[in-house]
Amino acid sequence: MKQLVRTAPAALPPVLRAPLAMSAALATAVLVALGILHFQDSGLTGIDATLLPSIDGVRPPWRYLALVFDFGGEPVGSVILIALLAGVCFLAHRVRTAVLTVLGVVVTVAVTTVLKPLVGRTIHGEFLSYPSGHTALATALALIIALLLTDRLALGRAAAVLLALGMALVAGIAMGWAEVALGAHYPTDAVGGFCAALAAVPLTAWAVDRVADRL
Q1: Cα–Cα distance for residue pair 40/62, rounded to 1 Å
Q2: HSE toward the beta carbon, residue 7, CA cutoff 13 A
Q3: What is the dihedral of CA 16, 108, 128, 43, to 10 degrees?
Q4: E-assigned strands of 3-62?
Q5: Cβ count near 173 (within 10 Å)
Q6: Burial level of 157, CB count in 10 A (0-12/13-18/19+)?
Q7: What is the 3-state secondary structure (H, E, C) of 46-77?
Q8: Using CA atoms, how far apart are residues 146 and 151, in angstroms rounded to an integer?
Q9: Cα–Cα distance between 134 and 72 in angstroms, integer?
Q10: In angstroms, rounded to a whole number, what is the distance separating the alpha carbons of residues 184 and 103?
Q11: Using an 8 Å Cβ cutoff, are 188 and 31 in contact?
Q12: pTM given for the model
């Protein structure tokens, strides 16, 4: 039986395979559970009603900061961020991670895009809101950066898990806050977006490695 020999650094570092597989499974469960809970929902209910007194959004100067974060999830801003990260990966000779940067974001955003009409949750009476695509994108990019740093710094498992989940959480909270602050999403929409990225990126990274190893 021919043994596959890896000739390039993995997109999913070995020390993170098991931890991110477990977190992906948990994130998937939360993503589905929240989708069921808010199926065909509209308006402030449940946890969202407790956390958010209204969906009117924040006022300046906080609104300006929220708009800066939001731009990173818009088409132009996201393309710039993806191109920059992919370029850094190529310069660092991490081709698989560069491929993951594009595919990971595409898969993550695709998941949120498909789920929105399936769940049918709306905000302001007409806009599909669950899960938040902006939050998912920001979380995905942060997680991919963490995978790159884990490989480059040769981190151990504990440090790698702390870095990956920590960066994902910070990015998710930042973008999630911005979307809620702008009145574009409910808090649980942001949680759903965060979970979508945690579920999609590790699976996509594993797939990139499997295909690259066989090629």
Answers
A1: 31
A2: 7
A3: 10
A4: none
A5: 15
A6: middle
A7: HHHHHHCCCCCCCCCCHHHHHHHHHHCCCHHH
A8: 9
A9: 8
A10: 26
A11: no
A12: 0.93
Mean pLDDT of 125-153: 96
**Tokens (6 digits) for 86:** 């992919």
Distance CA(103)–CA(7), nearest Å, equals 20
- pLDDT band per the 50, 70, 90 thresholds, residue 1: very low
Q: Decide which of 51 and 135 is more confident.
A: 135
DSSP, collapsed to helix, strand or coil, labels residue 127 as strand
Secondary structure class of 184 (helix, strand, coil): coil
Torsion of CA 110, 178, 128, 57, to 10 degrees: -170
Residue found by looking up tokens 């040769």 in the block: 154
Name beta bridge partners: 123. 127
Which ranges of 60-186 would DSSP assign to H, the alpha helix? 62-71, 75-91, 95-119, 133-153, 157-181
**b or e along 78-96 (b: 16 or more beta carbons within 10 Å of the residue's beta carbon)?**
beebbeebbeebeeeebbb
Strand partners, 42: 122
DSSP letter for 12, please.
S
Contacts with 93 (C-beta within 8 Å, 6 or more apart), sequence order: 9
Task: Share the mean pLDDT of the chain.
Answer: 93
What would the two tokens of residue 186 be?
Answer: 């409910």
Within 10 angstroms of residue 163's Cβ, the number of other Cβ atoms is 19
